Amino acid sequence: MNAAPSRAILQFVACRAILRVLICCASLSGLLGLVTEAHASAQTFAQKTLQIYFVDVEGGQATLFVTPAGESLLIDTGWPGNEGRDADRIVAAAKEAGISKIDFVLITHYHT
Predict the structure, then answer these.
(1) Which one of 1, 34, 73, 74 is most buried, by most CB atoms within 10 A?
(2) DSSP label at 83?
(3) Is 90 within 8 Å of 74 (Cβ atoms)?
(4) Cβ(67)–Cβ(50) below 8 Å
(5) Which of 72, 70, 50 is closest to 62 using CA atoms?
(6) Which whole number is the average pLDDT over 51-73?
(7) Nearest 5 degrees, angle CA 107-CA 104-CA 91?
(8) Which three-class secondary structure state does DSSP give residue 46?
(9) What is the DSSP letter of 56?
(10) Residue 73, class by beta-carbon neighbours within 10 Å (0-12 exposed, 13-18 middle, 19+ buried)?
């Protein structure tokens, strides 16, 4: 009886080894793609900063914050009258900040 492995068995073992290497390479390639994409996203996020806009409104100022994620917070709004002057100034600041809506509004005091 021949104790040496047959050629078919050697080919099978070699194919399994090659298949394992290919699967590992494909997995690593996918992981590297994810890591590269995550790194690019982190760099883009890191380049953005918190933006703060001070808006001159009657009786003080309104302050608009825009986060790096694009969320916005407006603190105070000025007077409700003045033919919309204060509202127009806030809208102008929002446009300058590149936002089309204000996510949160905090009123510290009321104007009558």
Answers:
(1) 74
(2) G
(3) yes
(4) yes
(5) 72
(6) 91
(7) 85
(8) helix
(9) E
(10) middle
- At 96-110, the pLDDT tens digits run 999 999 999 998 887
Both tokens assigned to 64: 């608009």
Q: Where are the beta strands (DSSP E) in the chain?
A: 51-57, 60-66, 72-75, 104-106
Length of the chain: 112
Distance CA 98, CA 51 (A): 11
Over range 23-47, report the average pLDDT: 56
Tokens of 1: 């009886």
Residue 58, token pair as written in the block = 């009657």
Whose tokens are 């080894």? That residue is 17
Q: Say if CB 79 and CB 86 are below 8 A apart.
A: yes
Residue 98 CB contacts under 8 Å (≥ 6 apart), including other chains: 66
Where on the phi/psi map is residue 60: left (φ > 0), alpha (ψ -120 to 50), or beta? left
